[in-house]
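Summary for the lay section of the report: proteins are chains of building blocks that fold into shapes. Here we show the chain for LPS-assembly lipoprotein LptE and then a coded description of the shape we predicted for it.
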Amino acid sequence: MFKQLKSLLLTASVLALSACGFHFQNGELIPQELQTLHLESSDPYSDMAVSMRRQLQLNNVNLVEAKAGVPVLRLNKTTTSEHVVSIFKQGREAEKLLVLDVEASVKLPNKEAFSISTKVNRTFFDYSRAALAKSSEKEVIWQDMREQAARQLMNKMVALQHQIQPK
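The coded shape description reads as follows.
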């Protein structure tokens, strides 16, 4: 009886959500002026540029070649750094703080440029006896940080909507 009730409630909720036109928001918050833009970077094949391009495509932003009348998202500067947070008794590094700092700007046609930036921090436990595994783990963490930075830049582009719209 309880199992049938559970399946009935699950079916009813799925039908209710599909019947009302519910869908996940994907790019709906991006301002209309930024729905089509050109992504510019000093290295278009860098890991950060690839992550940003992927995030833009996931949010249904049309990426086009540079031409007049198209807004430009420029990745100005990407900085990575590592700081020692703690050490072992023997004096070797135990834990590091990984920092990714990204500065970008959105330039609208015939208007000023808006600067956006983000900073992502992660801690990383560095155990020298498992150097190869830790090297791979560190690269996975860096990639995750780039994806998070790209998502944060997208959120800041959404926040630009109040500055972009004419008053």
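Put simply, here is one thing we learned. The radius of gyration is 22 Å.
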